[in-house]
Amino acid sequence: MRLLGLTQGVDAPSTRFRWTQHVEALSNAGFRVETLHARFGAYPPRSRLQRPFWGLATLADATARALKARSQADLCLLQRHLVSTLVTAEYLLPERMVFDVDDAIFLGTRGSSATRISRRAALTICGNQFLAEHFGQHGPVTVLPTAVDTERFVPGASRPARPLIGWSGSSSGFPYLYAIEPALKALLQMHPDLTLRVIADRPPAFSSLPAERVEFVRWSPATEVESLQELSIGLMPLEDSLWARGKCSFKMLTYMACALPVVVSPVGMNSEVLALGQSGLAATSSDDWLQAMDSLLRSEAERTRMGGMGRQVVQRHYSRAVISARLAELLHGLR
Q1: Nearest 5°: CA angle at 307, between 305 and 313?
Q2: Gap between the Cα atoms of 103 and 248, Å rounded
Q3: From residue 40, how far is each of 14, 56, 84, 124, 264 by CA, in Å?
Q4: Quick one: DSSP state of residue 189?
Q5: Residues 6+ apart with CB under 8 A from 80
Q6: pLDDT tens digit at each of 335 positions of the chain
Q7: Where are the domains of the chain?
Q8: CA distance 168 to 251
Q9: Alpha helix (H) ranges present in the chain?
């Protein structure tokens, strides 16, 4: 059975974690797998001058990929849209098309495009239950979390003597981090040897944190694991919004795979993950955040216990081996 994956670009997070890391397992499960990445990315460039050229090139690429899927694939898996927020060449895709969604892309003025794609899909695979509740109104759905490679995201051999709390993610998520800045400022004052590490594509711009207490690490695939392994605590703040409820907790899961205790907002899937084992603490208000981070910093034993529990949870429920097997089973069911 020839399976073709249509992604939003080779380096897109959804490509790396919801497709590429499963390709080998799918091949071993009997599929002939081919991947067609979006050659120009699925999102427009920042430069307005480049956007018309990008739009034409991307539309042509999307059409060519859809036609190849229709003529050569027995089954195709489409990650989000061929071109972000738009329905373009999706109508050319084969009937046995699986739509993979890991964000609340049905929200916003162009959100109906995602719903339209899901209506013609043989199956929509959703990264969490919140997404499944929406797309389940329009066709067959199943929940398949984003997997963590627990053979790569592993506990570090040792951690620095100085305490280090951290946040990792795209700079688009900085507003969530800025929202807990008052708690971070108070925490840094309480712990003079503490440093906040931010792992992202660009430096954050805090309004009140001392620059010398914030360490920026530019994200790269080569260093993403090591950058986490050195942390004492992993942070995942969110606002309680519809968009945030669509998040698939991947940041939290990578912390846990590295045996880090977590402090997270109990929003959406974060609450579901916390319920599987005492891997960290939930925080809602600024006082909650301060108290949770402070209590973990003061107890190495608690950090070790929660970190160990977190890794067990990821290995049992969210590891690449577990999720790859489930994905293969779902796709075989569409034969």
Answers
A1: 105
A2: 7
A3: 16, 10, 12, 25, 35
A4: H
A5: 8, 14, 42, 100, 101, 102, 103, 105, 114
A6: 999 999 999 988 899 999 999 999 999 999 999 999 999 988 888 888 899 999 999 999 999 999 999 999 999 999 999 999 999 999 999 999 999 999 999 998 889 999 999 999 999 999 999 999 999 999 999 999 999 999 999 999 877 778 999 999 999 999 999 999 999 999 999 999 999 999 999 999 999 999 999 999 999 989 999 999 999 999 999 999 999 999 999 999 999 999 999 999 999 999 999 999 999 999 999 999 999 999 999 999 999 999 999 999 999 999 999 999 999 999 999 97
A7: 2-146+320-332, 164-317
A8: 7
A9: 13-18, 23-28, 51-72, 112-119, 129-135, 174-178, 181-190, 224-229, 242-245, 250-257, 269-274, 286-297, 300-317, 320-332
Establish how many alpha carbons lie within 13 A of residue 301's alpha carbon, considering only the half-sphere containing its beta carbon: 0
- Whole-number Å distance between alpha carbons of 28 and 273: 29
Which of 164, 285, 324 has its CA nearest to residue 230? Answer: 164
Could you tell me if 297 and 162 are in contact, meaning their C-beta atoms sit under 8 angstroms apart?
no
Q: Quote the tokens at residue 135.
A: 């797309």
pTM over 0.70: yes
> Domain 2-146+320-332 has what CATH class?
alpha beta
CATH classification (class only), 164-317: alpha beta
CA contacts within 13 A on the Cβ side of 25: 20
Taking the C-alpha atoms of residue 293 and residue 301, their distance in angstroms, rounded to an integer, is: 14
Q: Do domains 2-146+320-332 and 164-317 have the same CATH topology?
A: yes
Q: At what angle do helices 286-297 and 300-317 cross, to 10 degrees?
A: 100
Is 271:285 a contact under the CB 8 Å cutoff?
no
Alpha carbon distances (Å) from 286 to 179, 181, 293:
9, 9, 11
Q: Which two tokens stand for residue 105?
A: 């892309």
Cβ neighbours for 205, distance < 8 A, ≥ 6 positions apart: 174
